[in-house]
Write a structure and sequence with these properties.
There is one protein chain. By secondary structure, the protein is mostly helical. The chain has a single domain, classed as Growth Hormone, Chain: A. It is built from 15 helices and no strands.
Amino acid sequence: MPVVRDLRVLVRLTDFRRLLAVRLLSQCADGVYQVALATYVVFSPEKQTSPAAIASAMAVLLLPYSFVGPFAGVLLDRWQRRQVFLYGNLLRALLAAGTACLILASVPDWLFYASALSVTAVNRFVLAGLSAALPRVVDDDRLVMANSLSPTAGTLAATAGGGLAFAVRLLGADSDAVVVLLGAALYLCSALASLRMGRGLLGPDRDAVPPRLGAALASTARGLASGVRHLARRRAAGRALAAMTVMRFCYGALTVMVLMLCRYAWTSTQSEGLALLGLAVAVSGAGFFTAAVVSPWAVERLGQGGWMVLCAASAAVLAPALGLLFTPAPILVAAFVLGLVTQGAKIATDTVVQLAVDDAYRGRVFALYDVFYNAAFVAAAAVSALLLPSDGRSVLLVVMVAVLYAAVAVALARWRRADAAL
């Protein structure tokens, strides 16, 4: 099979394998850390969680990336990306250990959120850098396969990290601080793994960007505007990013709904709710893995745009068919399907952006991509806070999500036909 053959080739590429190891360790740590935060905010016995509380937490943790993201992009196009992975993960290990101390000290929520924000803010540099560096370790012909394997493997690693965090919490850890410290240890391992790659291997090329940090900071606004203009000239990349942003919004809204269902509607105890949420995360992770296997085959036959159309259309049909029952079994099936189509669309989007955007602009564009991704999730949480009752059952929310998925499918199909007619 071509997929198996290409996969074997990728795994034999030493530099790709080393970059993948950094991603897997880093995103596994992300999964551990994020689940620790979720259990502390949503499932702590002393907290009465509501959709509004979840939305507030997401806004505090994610919305500031609208300011951090552009700086990350400009700097990623000037800093050596290997060094970003090294020092970024070292810093996150230190900050995560600080978060664990704050949990043990039972500090006010605002101080806890400030610490968590510091950890996840550095994440913007690392994830955007991983995507921008990928074309430096594989050739164009295998970029689709690399985008299927690498980001999806990272998502699976994050899912595995989340499962590990759930297991540690359910099997005896008396405090979320213990789980946070586990995440800190994994961040440290990711930093050490980056040392296996050459300092200049991942770019950017020194002759393509100003080499001095002072010049980079002084030109941040100009660099961001230049990145936006470059993206505007690449219509395929801009359309793919717009579609992926809407699909991310839909996924975020349904995620908040499942959180509330697990917390209040389906279980009588917090430990049962936490276990059921862990199962939903695992099932969604299985969907991500399936997307990694299916996407290269689907893109080869349908094209990147056609695969995105099929993903959005499938979600438009299956989200209400399964979600409106508001019972665990159909929702878990929906979690698998939405994991598959969301990750499948993201694989296609990553590839479109990487191929359409020049290397000197990739850091900026992927940082903008990251901003759109997080802003969409925050917006989804805010809308969910308005529509969801305390038990998480909302017909209106599910129908709205289905309509948005359908609109994305129609828009992508029209853009695809228009491009074919040129």
